[in-house]
Amino acid sequence: MKNENFRKLISNTPSKWEEKVNEKIEKPWLSEYSAKIARNISAILNTRDEFNQTDLAVLLGVERQYISRVLQGKENLSLQTIWKLSRKLEFELLDFPTYNFNVNEKLKYKEFRQSKENKNLEAMVIPFSPFKEQPDSTKVIYSYLKLKYAD
Amino acid sequence: MSTFKLTIMELVPIFVDDEGSVEGLFAVRYREGEPDEFERLFEQWDDSNFVLSYFLFNEEFLKDSYFDYYETFGHFDKAFNLSEKVEFEATQIYSLFIQYRLDGYKTSSGFLQTLFKPLEKEKKQFDEDSLQESKFKIEDKINNPQPILRLYGLRIEDNTFVITGGAIKLTHWMEHHHDTLEELNKLQKVKEWLLENDVTSQDDIKYSYYEK
After folding, report:
1. B39 to A17: CB separation less than 8 angstroms, yes or no
2. Mutate which of B17, B32, B46, B98 to test chain A, going by most A C-beta atoms within 10 A?
3. Quick check: B35 contacting A, CB < 8 Å?
4. How does pLDDT run across B149-201, given as a tens digit for each residue?
5. Running DSSP on this structure, what letter comes out for residue B144?
6. What b/e string do you get for B112-148 counting C-beta neighbours within 10 Å, with b at 16 or more?
7. pLDDT score at B183
8. Exposed/middle/buried for A127, CB within 10 Å: 0-12, 13-18, 19+?
9. pLDDT tier at B73 (50, 70, 90 boundaries)?
10. A111 within a domain of the structure (yes/no)
11. Domain carrying residue A118
12. Is the model's pTM score more than 0.80?
């Protein structure tokens, strides 16, 4: 390769790729929460011809650019914003699991606490989850969208 | 007919040899003030709305047997699953390149040239010719056996590549989707531009069928 010819074509303005990738890696909540919420909103807007990003911005009293960033999955949404979006979209964007602290688990917990070897370990982690497995919000929205499409 | 308007500005270093040579990875910046292709693709693949809308818009291509791997039931299911896959895969790709930049890309385990493969279906090895069309896809048979993202570029020489673009690959043949067809066009245009600037000499610019 003729190095000098190649060198002439090289820019002095660096790429910002690494900065952007590191920002994503350092903020896992963006991909784990914000992006999931964004996809749900995007899918809902896709099913409603009469309702677009601009309408949503007007309803929420925010700039359209803000909605655009929300849909890109780039916003660290506050609970208040998620609540407002859910009301306006008439769809619950956050899904909370039911607290299934059932009798058997209570007994297990009692036995655990009363056992001699664990008697004094007040701060020990409880060896079972009080939560029963629940469908995640993505599955719930799949069902919702299937119903919408069935219409 | 291609809608791609080529106004090539420059080659942007992604990571290059510290010793002052021009060995390393570069990406094309097509227009002034815009990000280079490597940066642009990350932004695009990291945009939840763009990716989901892309799959919804390309519904007809998701019916292809190419996507049989996704044992899902409906169009929306596929679009959601594939969107999450793109996000995961983009992070995999760019983390790998960060690793190469940090560890060096000429160590025994990290030759840059081993990441890229010739684009032409029948070729398993790079030719001695320079400016060969190349592709990159993630190799992870356990966590990601059927990668969907591609980077395309030209091999200048060993360990020196110029990324010309990339795509979400929806069809087996690049010619069968307008976006990947556009990527072929970009490869040829950049190749011509490099030749015009006497980066290398090569008589034959090939244009044939390409695989994934």
Report:
1. yes
2. B46
3. yes
4. 999 999 988 788 999 999 999 998 999 999 999 999 999 999 999 998 888 74
5. B
6. bbebbbbbbeeeeebeeebbbbbbbbbeeeeebeebb
7. 97
8. exposed
9. low
10. yes
11. 97-134
12. no
Query: What single DSSP character describes residue A120?
Result: T
For the record, the structure tokens of A47 come out as: 């099913």
Touching A: B residues 112-151, CB under 8 Å:
130
CA of B21: which chain A residue's CA is closest? A3
In this structure, the answer to whether residues A91 and A142 fall within a common structural domain is yes
R_g over Cα of chain B: 17
For residue A69, pLDDT beyond 90: yes
Share of chain B above pLDDT 90, in %: 45
| Statement to judge: residues A53 and A115 lie in one domain | no
Which amino acid is it at A101? F
Is residue A54 located within the same domain as residue A84?
A: yes
**B83 closest CB neighbour out of A8, A39, A68:** A39
Task: Report the relative pairing of strands B117-118 and B24-29 from DSSP bridges.
Answer: unpaired
B204 token code pair: 């034959």
Is A10 part of any domain? no
Residue A5 lies in a domain: no
Amino acid at A66: Y
What is the ipTM for the molecules in this complex?
Answer: 0.83
At A103 the pLDDT is 61
* Best of B34, B49, B91 to mutate (most A CBs within 10 Å, chain A): B49
Strands B160-168 and B24-29 turn out to be parallel
In angstroms, the separation between the Cα of residue A144 and the nearest Cα of chain B is: 11
We report the CATH number of the domain holding residue A32 as 1.10.260.40
The answer to whether the Cβ–Cβ distance between A38 and B50 falls below 8 Å is no
Q: What is the pLDDT of residue A96?
A: 79
Contacts of B98 in chain A (CB under 8 A): 18, 21-22
CB pairs below 8 Å between A and B: how many?
124
Cβ contacts of A7 on chain B, cutoff 8 Å: 22
Cα B14 from Cα B101, distance rounded (Å): 9
- A131 pLDDT higher than 70: no
